[in-house]
Description:
Blueprint: E1 3-5, H1 10-15, E2 21-26, H2 31-46, E3 52-57, H3 62-67, E4 75-80, E5 83-89, H4 94-101
Parallel strand pairs: 1-3, 2-3
Antiparallel strand pairs: 2-4, 4-5
Amino acid sequence: MALELTDKNFDEVVMASDKPVLVDMWAIWCGPCRMVAPILEDISKDYAGRVIVGKLDVDSNPGTTSRFGIRNIPTILFFKDGKLVDKQVGAVPKAVIVRKLEPYL
Length: 105
């Protein structure tokens, strides 16, 4: 299950993680974000214990949204050892996300 991320807990959950982290930058009104949500839930189950999957509502968390220059959603940010290592903008199939994730496991 994806964790709810906020401006307040982002550094603690994402930047300090010893596991790779996927961060779904989304908004409730975003249709493509709703298409990606079940894919990320699947990934969180498939990679349980090896990857952290989090969701950050861009409307409620402007600090983190601005910090990473998010202009389009959905955007999935890939973190490893507290560093942003990749990103995916737009709704894509599960295979695309997994292919980007695999090198960081």
